[in-house]
């Protein structure tokens, strides 16, 4: 508001309309077309029309103070006098209950309580451009003078806000009649929505007041709950609910999941949480509220179809979700919900307080119920096969079910044991069962009905998330560490639901997706191990395992290393699947023979017998033998030591040339300015004496470079100038310790990869990195 000498006092327009705003929810039932039950959740908002100025809420600041103690009937004479009273500079602080000075002397020797302020106005004088605020209190007036009109208005709105929020806090802390309380809540919400102040506390303060009110009055009726939720709905459009309010919302979702409030009020709140929340760890009740909201949707007539529509609405109609936080937040909610299903099992395992007990404040050991011991019933071991039936491969025995039952025993917390077979050891605990393979690799866990519904709901949400192509890379990365309790991985129902998600990862051609099937670090199992034959989650005789091997072999640049890993850990399952005619496993066994992965002669003969036992295996083994004969001829000593292919030569030309004679002495090969691609790497790795390779200005890429790094360990000179190689392939050169000359001129080499190569290649002396980022 401008102060430009009008000769009169002006009340602020915002202050006038603040007192006359309509209450929330005063809507006529007979004058609208709202659906029954939906009306109370929507209302028009009548905001004050103001000048459009916005101010930050003041908590402290410097200002001039003058106190006039006089009968209020003489106020006009004092204000129009030529000389005003003495002014004092003060640094004032706006606390929650009063206005106080950092130097309590003079006019501000005592604090001024908001409850004692009777009136709050802006002042202006004719021919005296002072920017003042008038605070009337019993027996006098306090005048505050600011440096300019903007600062004066900021002080005015801040004081007005502090005064009103103090009043509402006092009124709502001692409720008498709930119809009056609801009216005050509506007025409080309207005040916050129409305030020109821009500060997080403007909307959070009313929410905290209301959450405190609800926490201290737990005996409210369901209708009172809904009325309060509808009243505060506008404040939640742009603000997260505080923790206590989340607890109240959770209770409402559990007790009245079919209420229209859940759909019409909670939906935008949960959508905002999923889109904008950065860390559920700072406010876990936001995650719990989101979890209860999704379970409430599942209780509707449509069930999971409603949940599916909600997930789709969070993703959006396009092929790419515009909100990067939605997926991690949804995954966090699913993981927490799944973890809660097995909480009793986990609690009985480590004897720690459950989340429910922590929420209820039962932290002390003597406040808690005795732990729930697990009773594992181990069946008789299977009868061993006759000695004369020795399979070619070690086949996993069929899984044996172990029933896990929970028992409450107030007298003892020890695990009950049941007599097993003669000579048997004491029965294992739940975690040990997961490590026994393959004789004991499946657990049948009986969950309570409610936990079973929760598990089914959130496992299906993970399946829904895996169906979105743009979400799948991030989802695979989030699930790569296997962030589930061991009890869940031992639960047949859960692993069966999760198998769909892993199958989607295995079918995705993008390396960033299917590479997450492998373990996140060495020494830790990944999905590849869990769903392989003998793994705790395998229930399909290795079909998913075969598809995972197929996709990984197609893109895994560490092919030889991957084959070594299979030979060490999964050779038996690979041979069993090859024996059953699986073509992928037949190819794996042929590669193991071709790359000399298997050193033991007996094992080699067993693999050959396995290949010859099926038609597809016999045919591929014959092709392998033909290639081996050609390879021996190629590597036979003799032939040229240097060879240069004509320009424009192709991969087929190179293969035709190398099949024409012996090249066991070839040390220097130039393919510069030819049309060869990464496919020719299959031919290059057959040259045992190759030491110098020139690929200048070819289409040789990352895939070929990865293959060379595994097989040409003796290569000393490599020219990659003007090739399309990138960091993804160049980083593989770190295993070629014999390299002493490397030309990466005009490639997509980065500085970080260059430094990494220099550190890992001790013999590297001559390097050309011109026209790269590392130059």
UniProtKB/TrEMBL annotation:
Keywords: Cytoplasm, Leucine-rich repeat, Nucleus, Repeat. The keyword Repeat applies. GO terms for cellular component: cytoplasm; nucleus. Residues 57-166 form the PH domain. Its main location: cytoplasm. InterPro entries: CMIP (IPR052813), LRR_dom_sf (IPR032675), PH_CMIP (IPR056429), PH_domain (IPR001849). It comes from the Eukaryota. Signal peptide: none annotated. SMART domains: PH (SM00233). The keyword Kinase does not apply. Gene3D superfamilies: Ribonuclease Inhibitor. It is found in: Cytoplasm; Nucleus. PANTHER family: C-MAF-INDUCING PROTEIN, LEUCINE-RICH REPEAT-CONTAINING PROTEIN 73. This is C-Maf-inducing protein. It comes from Oryzias latipes (Japanese rice fish).
């Amino acid at each position: 508001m401008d102060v430009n000498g009008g000769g009169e006092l002006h009340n602020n327009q915002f202050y006038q309309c603040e007192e006359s705003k309509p209450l929330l929810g005063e809507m006529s039932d007979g004058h609208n077309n709202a659906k029954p039950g939906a009306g109370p959740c929507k209302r028009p908002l009548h905001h004050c029309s103001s000048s459009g100025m916005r101010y930050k809420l003041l908590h402290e600041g410097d200002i001039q103070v003058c106190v006039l103690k006089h009968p209020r009937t003489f106020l006009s004479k004092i204000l129009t006098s030529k000389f005003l009273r003495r002014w004092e500079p003060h640094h004032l602080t706006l606390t929650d209950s009063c206005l106080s000075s950092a130097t309590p002397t003079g006019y501000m020797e005592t604090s001024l309580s908001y409850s004692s302020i009777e009136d709050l106005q802006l002042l202006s004088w004719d021919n005296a451009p002072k920017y003042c605020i008038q605070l009337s209190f019993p027996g006098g007036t306090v005048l505050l003078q600011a440096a300019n009109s903007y600062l004066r208005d900021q002080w005015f709105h801040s004081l007005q806000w502090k005064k009103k929020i103090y009043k509402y806090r006092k009124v709502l802390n001692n409720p008498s009649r709930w119809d009056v309380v609801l009216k005050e809540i509506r007025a409080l919400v309207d005040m916050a929505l129409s305030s020109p102040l821009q500060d997080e506390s403007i909307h959070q303060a009313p929410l905290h007041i209301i959450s405190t009110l609800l926490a201290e009055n737990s005996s409210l009726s369901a209708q009172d709950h809904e009325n309060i939720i509808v009243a505060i709905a506008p404040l939640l459009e742009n603000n997260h609910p505080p923790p206590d309010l989340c607890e109240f919302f959770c209770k409402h979702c559990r007790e009245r999941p079919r209420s229209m409030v859940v759909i019409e009020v909670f939906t935008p709140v949960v959508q905002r949480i999923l889109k904008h929340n950065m860390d559920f760890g700072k406010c876990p009740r936001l995650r719990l509220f989101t979890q209860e909201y999704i379970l409430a949707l599942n209780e509707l007539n449509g069930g999971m179809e409603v949940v599916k529509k909600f997930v789709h609405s969070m993703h959006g109609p396009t092929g790419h979700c515009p909100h990067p936080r939605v997926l991690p937040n949804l995954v966090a909610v699913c993981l927490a919900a799944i973890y809660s299903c097995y909480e009793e099992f986990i609690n009985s395992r480590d004897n720690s307080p459950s989340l429910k007990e922590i929420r209820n404040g039962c932290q002390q050991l003597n406040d808690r119920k005795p732990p729930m011991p697990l009773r594992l019933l181990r069946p008789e071991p299977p009868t061993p096969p006759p000695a004369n039936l020795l399979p070619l491969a070690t086949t996993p025995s069929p899984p044996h079910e172990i029933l896990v039952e929970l028992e409450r025993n107030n007298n003892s917390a020890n695990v009950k044991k049941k007599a097993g077979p003669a000579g048997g050891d004491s029965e294992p605990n739940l975690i040990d069962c997961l490590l026994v393979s393959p004789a004991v690799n499946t657990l049948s866990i009986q969950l309570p009905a409610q936990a079973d519904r929760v598990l089914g709901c959130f496992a299906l949400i993970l399946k829904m998330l895996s169906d979105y192509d743009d979400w799948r890379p991030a989802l695979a990365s989030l699930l790569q560490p296997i962030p589930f309790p061991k009890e869940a991985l031992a639960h047949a129902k859960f692993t069966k639901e999760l198998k769909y998600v892993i199958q989607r990862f295995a079918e995705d051609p993008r390396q960033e997706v299917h590479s997450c099937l492998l373990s996140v670090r060495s020494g830790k199992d990944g999905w590849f191990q869990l769903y392989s034959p003998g793994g705790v989650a395998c229930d399909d005789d290795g079909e998913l395992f075969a598809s995972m091997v197929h996709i990984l072999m197609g893109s895994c640049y560490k092919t030889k290393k991957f084959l070594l890993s299979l030979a060490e850990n999964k050779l038996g399952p690979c041979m069993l699947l090859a024996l059953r005619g699986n073509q992928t496993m037949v190819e794996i066994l042929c590669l193991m023979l071709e790359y000399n992965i298997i050193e033991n002669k007996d094992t080699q003969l067993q693999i050959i017998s396995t290949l010859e036992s099926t038609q597809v295996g016999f045919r591929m083994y014959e092709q392998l033998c033909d290639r081996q004969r050609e390879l021996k001829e190629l590597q036979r000593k003799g032939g040229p030591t240097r060879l240069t292919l004509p320009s424009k030569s192709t991969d087929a030309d190179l293969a035709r040339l190398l099949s024409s004679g012996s090249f066991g002495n070839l040390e220097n090969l130039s393919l510069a300015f030819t049309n060869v691609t990464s496919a020719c790497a299959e031919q290059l790795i057959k040259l045992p004496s190759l030491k110098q390779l020139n690929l200048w200005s070819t289409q040789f890429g990352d895939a070929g470079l990865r293959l060379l790094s595994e097989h040409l360990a003796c290569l000393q000179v490599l020219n990659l100038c003007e090739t399309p190689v990138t960091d993804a392939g160049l980083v593989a050169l770190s295993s070629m310790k014999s390299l002493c000359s490397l030309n990466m001129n005009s490639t997509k080499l980065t500085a970080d990869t260059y430094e990494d190569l220099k550190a890992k290649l001790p013999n590297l002396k001559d390097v050309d990195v011109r026209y790269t980022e590392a130059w």
